[in-house]
Amino acid sequence: QVQLVESGGGLVQAGDSLRLSCVASGRTSSNYAMGWFRQAPGKEREFVSTITRNFSTYYVASVKGRFTISRDNANDNGKSTVYLQMNSLKPEDTAVYYCAAKRDYSGRFYSTDSDYNYWGQGTQVTVSS
Question: Residue 19: which of 98, 93, 83 has the closest Cα?
Fold first, then answer.
């Protein structure tokens, strides 16, 4: 079992930056693909970014060049962290952001929410114009 806890959301103005963090604890190891998804009011949850166990990254077109995903593998306490650095934020980035994890040994990308086994509770990001 893996527990995911996000933090770092908030209210910012257009053009500002935020860094989201997701701490993974439990049966964590480097053999997980990690992803970020978001859900805006009245819309379906959508893929934002993923980072593989081999540190390869992939982004949805709307955030490419503005968002950066990164990860630290498990430390001595057995916790690992994935980050989402968000720059040049736009009002359309407003959403609840969710961290997700999928056990994986292949190094593949996963961009569909049904691929992921574990989810955090979400953190609100609001960007005002």
Answer: 83
